[in-house]
Design brief:
Length: 488
């Protein structure tokens, strides 16, 4: 089966093939085709043609909405197959993969409903003979580049609004987890997306991602991934003055005041950081806890962290899976080593599991680290793994200061029973999402994205659609008369 989709045809590409590995046991799930530079050119040319000359431009907004609704229906039909594939590809549990498919379906429905709701606005010019309209138009050809942690979910946050707004696109999923992105493109084809509107090329960053995002035929790059890659994409966009929207990493504070119900504090501290083995951009990896609660909270979290059931995401009862790859686990190990060298205390974890049943996979134990300083690497950098660090505060001001002491600004939470304090802390935190007495939830209607080095732009919500729209002002003089500006 060919895995690249260019101009309405499934094709094998000129870049050879690559193996997609199951992180649970390092077995090969599937071998997939890889694109070469010529495939990238062909995909951009197809998207360009479909945007500039294809029938797509005359597909009106209600029809685009109907198309998105058909994709949503197909996602419901294929939910089990897609969820199963996502688990094989990423290692996450089937429960999580099923939730991902439901969330993706909701995102398609949300943008289906939004597609024809905003025809722009009339502007008061003070001149009765003038009709002045501000309208929204698609940006053009979009390069959509996605990471490996939530492959289908992150892609849907881009594809659904980009289609709703009338763009064409070339998708480049992570080389580590491309399988559900291929499935989504198949569903778009089945739903009736015209040839050239949605294309997908597979391959790694240097070979495929860079030529795609630098391509002069691309009008906009929407990227989700790491900070270093995001910076490279923004730099490369300068040459052709492309629009860029980048969703990057996070180093997210989970601030817990001592008045929080103890069970709630323990439960959410664990959910915040250990969900999907910490491979979540919004993971609450920094537990910032009021001094009087810290010892008891850390002891209980560490005790329960040791009882988290690791295993095959396909097996019932398994709570978390492995790291996505051997290389990523090595990165996690590097963080723990550096914390140890700096004199930190590893309260639990800090190693690979001893269970022989997990030996082939890329597992790492849920880890809690205390005794870290604010300059520690493990505090400053995004680990993207099952590592919880603990910092303490005594005053509200100190909690806010710690929560903002990061170059990132993606998400964070505050736990307290004092709602005045909760609101003060929420407004003081420089993060794109703040949860009060909760962690991780999101909905399609609320914007998602980062401040500072967590990125620019927003996905989801109304802003998530506007990202894929140009704004045009159309001025019509209905009673033109000579102005007589030049007298000669
Ligand atoms: P990554 O930056 O290594 O790769 C992301 C994508 O970019 C992949 O498809 C990769 O092939 C491609 N790429 C790599 N080099 C490129 C280049 N020079 N030009 C163009 N494309 C290139 O990130 P990753 O390791 O796949 O994902 C993990 C990162 O994603 C974490 O930092 C995480 O925080 C971030 N993330 C952020 C959000 C968010 O909403 N802000 C969501 C999920 C993940």
């Amino acid at each position: 089966m060919s895995d690249l989709f260019i101009d309405g045809e499934w094709t094998s590409g000129s870049g050879g093939s690559a193996q997609v590995v199951n992180p649970f046991d390092a077995s090969v799930v599937r071998t997939v085709d890889q694109a070469g530079a010529d495939d990238v050119d062909r995909a951009v040319a197809a998207a360009r043609r479909a945007f500039d000359h294809g029938p797509w431009r005359s597909v009106e907004a209600p029809e685009r909405g109907a198309l998105l609704r058909r994709v949503a229906d197909l996602l419901v039909r294929d939910k089990e197959e897609i969820a199963h594939t996502e688990t094989l590809d990423t290692g996450k549990t089937l429960v999580e993969s099923r939730i991902d498919v439901d969330d993706v379906t909701a995102v398609f429905r949300f943008y289906a409903d939004l597609a024809d709701k905003d025809a722009g606005r009339l502007v008061e010019t003070g001149q009765p003979a003038v009709v002045s309209r501000v309208v929204h138009e698609p940006v053009g050809v979009c390069a959509l580049v996605t990471p490996w942690n939530y492959p289908l979910l992150q892609l849907s946050w881009k594809v659904a609004p980009a289609l709703a707004a009338g763009n064409t696109m070339v998708i480049k999923p992570s080389e580590v987890t491309p399988l559900t992105s291929i499935l989504l493109v198949r569903l778009c084809e089945e739903a009736g997306v015209p040839a050239g509107v949605v294309n997908i090329v597979l391959g790694d960053g240097p070979t495929v991602g860079a030529p795609l995002t630098e391509h002069p035929g691309v009008d906009m790059v929407s990227f989700t991934g790491g900070l270093a890659t995001g910076k490279a994409i923004i730099r490369a966009s300068a040459e052709t003055v492309k629009r860029t929207a980048v969703e990057l990493g996070g180093k997210n504070p989970n601030i817990v005041f001592a008045d929080t119900d103890f069970e709630l504090a323990v439960d959410y501290a664990m959910l915040a950081v250990f969900l999907h083995s910490g491979q979540v951009c919004s993971a609450g990896a920094r537990l910032i806890v009021e001094d009087s609660l810290a010892d008891a909270l850390v002891a209980e979290v560490a005790s329960r962290a040791q009882r988290i059931r690791l295993g095959n995401g396909l097996d019932a009862g398994v709570e978390v899976g492995p790291m996505v790859s051997e290389a990523h686990r090595a990165k996690i190990e590097g963080f723990v080593d550096s914390a140890k060298k700096e004199g930190a205390t590893i309260v639990c974890g800090g190693a690979r599991p001893a269970d022989p049943a997990l030996a082939k996979g890329f597992f790492y134990l849920p880890t809690v680290i205390t005794g870290v300083t604010r300059s520690s690497r493990v505090i400053r950098e995004e680990t993207f793994g099952p590592i919880l660090t603990v910092e303490r505060f005594t005053t509200e001001a100190e909690a806010i200061e710690l929560g903002n002491d990061t170059e990132y600004g993606l998400a964070g939470a505050v736990f307290t029973q004092d709602m005045g304090r909760a609101q003060r802390v929420a407004s003081a935190l420089r993060h794109g999402t703040v949860w009060i007495n909760d962690y991780h939830p999101y909905v399609p209607g609320a914007e998602w994205g980062g401040m500072k080095r967590s990125g620019n732009g927003r996905e989801l919500g109304y802003t998530g659609l506007h990202e894929y729209q140009e704004t045009k002002h159309v001025w019509q003089n209905t009673a033109p008369a000579p102005q007589g500006w030049f007298k000669g």
